Amino acid sequence: MQEEYHTSPTKQATADGCDTLYNPTYDQTYHSTLGALTEARHVFLEATGVTERLQQSQPTRVLEVGFGTGLNFLLTAHHAEQAHVPLHFVSLEKNVLPAILLARLNHGEILGAMALQSALVAWRKTLPETPLPSVYHFASSDTITLDLLVGDATTTVLPVPPFDAVYLDAFSPDTNPELWTKPFLARLYDALKSGGRLTTYSAKGSVRRAMTAAGFAVEKRPGPPGKREMLVGVKP
Length: 236
Prior knowledge:
Layout: E1 10-13, E2 19-23, E3 28-29, H1 36-48, H2 50-55, E4 60-65, H3 71-83, E5 87-93, H4 99-104, H5 107-111, H6 114-126, E6 134-139, E7 144-150, E8 163-168, H7 182-191, E9 192-200, H8 205-213, E10 217-222, E11 229-234
Parallel strand pairs: 4-5, 4-8, 5-7, 8-9
Antiparallel strand pairs: 1-2, 2-3, 6-7, 9-11, 10-11
Helix pairs in contact: 1-3, 7-8
């Protein structure tokens, strides 16, 4: 997530039993209160085709905008572990949450991936309290790696080669408008391989138009619980 926060986020349960955090400064939660895990699985893993890729034993590269609580990474990494498939996950984040908050969330318990969450929290403890802009590496195994790119997402240099999928999970366009513009979306477009998909929970008209202007073939799909629609962009 890209916004500064001045009051510590607080834990909040969601409808499917998976915890999220509420950010009082911006009056938003990091995930849907109608089901954090349900949203992550539906919007990001399934709509991008990542679930299918892992089931088919295809090594996968994912770029995420907004690491937040790490739920999308944990879910994707857990699927990759179960499928014994290599995963390289790159996430852009301006404000990294402290280990004490990550440890309070029940993501590992819900996913059946306590060892993975514990390793992620332990790694976070090794980082500075407020990490400076840089790339921070985490590996849960020889084949599952995370590169956390800390800094302003709009100027961060994205790694190559191209990605199979992009998870656009920033705070809302009203809160983080710079991450929903044509110039930024064009950078994400360039980071994708041909046929790759970008997905987001947002179905806002301005976002759809910006995605189209950036080059994506955009379609609306049924959203997760509580949202009628969501957007999927494909790089032709």
